[in-house]
Records
---
Amino acid sequence: MFNLKIEFYLKLIFTISLISIISAYFIEYFIGHQPCNLCLIQRIPYGLSLILISLNYFFKKNEIFIILLLIMIFTFSLIISLYHFGIEQGFFEESAVCGLKNSAEIISKDELLKQLQQKTISCKDVTFRIFGLSLTSINIFISFLLTILLMKIFVSYEKNK
């Protein structure tokens, strides 16, 4: 590693997570590309990392625990992204997660009929690309890098404290 303090790396991860969340909402609400259910799930690790890193500044004594949680969170993000990429490429079939809507909103048969008539976004359809890459493939890259970075931080924790 470059012998920088852990605080610098956590700020970097916080910034990457914040940019990722803002970009996802910008693409959805301002550009108009609707996400599938797996795309929505892939946002969760970034939101959790923002919360955990913010908490770290209040509870410094649990920093190593937060780093371990972040490793697990971004490993989960990597696995979900790889699965989603596999669906996009046709390696895997779409799971039930891809077609689910919020069942709490369905209170009558009329509501159920309305939801069945709405167009759902398929997990295998790529609706938005940046430089020819789907957002899922970009998320694989980011999640992999953040997982490796966090593992290096964990291994060299005492030295870079």
---
Amino acid sequence: MATPTRHRFSLDEWHRMGDVLGGDARVELIEGEIVEMSPIGARHAWCVARLTAALVHALGDAAIVWPQNPVELDEHSEPRPDLAVLHPDPAGDTTPRAGDVLLVVEVADTSLAFDREVKAPLYARAGIPTLWIVDLQARCVEVLTDPSPTGYRHRRVLVAGARLVLADLAELPVSDVLGPGTGA
């Protein structure tokens, strides 16, 4: 029995497929493969909304908050992180690339393994300086920094009572990100 041949999609092919897949499709291009994402539940949606509002307020004009939009990492990967924080770009007429990104955030309710094992190494290889994984099940935020070709070299886990810091631009209480039921 012959092994099936896989076709690795390029970004150009991926963009041309947009009309076929439709704008509402919950898919991402990850290392040349089309990956269907989990549906967004209420806890996940509220966490993204809280975090978006908090970052917009804290950052002002210092950066752009880019919720649930694509980020081009390389020729074969264009994920849609739950949130990205970008360097200010007055032109804003192309899909942001990894070099435009200060922070990506993945909110994990059912996707924790995929976010840790697939997306985190992808973001690190692309040189994204900071990744926050909001773990809604464990009620904590993993902060990954110091990207390298093999992954992020530093990992801290923050819980309610701690503060998330984004460079010298913003500081947020973890409990504000996690929402009700976090205690402190």
---
Amino acid sequence: MELQVLAPFEEILRADVVKVLAESQSGYFALLPHHADLVSTLVPGILSYEYLDGRDGFVAVDEGLLLKRGSQLMVTVRQGVAGGSLETLQKTVVEKFQALDVREEQARAVLARLEASFVHGLAGLGEWG
């Protein structure tokens, strides 16, 4: 099967695989090449897969949607991080969330400055009346 994992602005993974394990609201399930086509929602967690040579791979995913159609398996998520091992994946996820925290903090600071500027501008309008 060709597995493709997509986020809104990036392709997280594209690989030929023989098995995929994912988690929906109903629990974990496995997909093999001969399984029927399906669509399933995914909950945040770890999507694991097996390459053609037997190696395992992992993708940490936010909630998303999985679509299997023939030999094509597409997963769309809000956010995701690929890793060759669970240890590597954990480190990458921690680094990504720390970077997100920094960006969110910067965005909050910019928003606070904009709000202060807006309030200051409104206060100035009252002086004209």
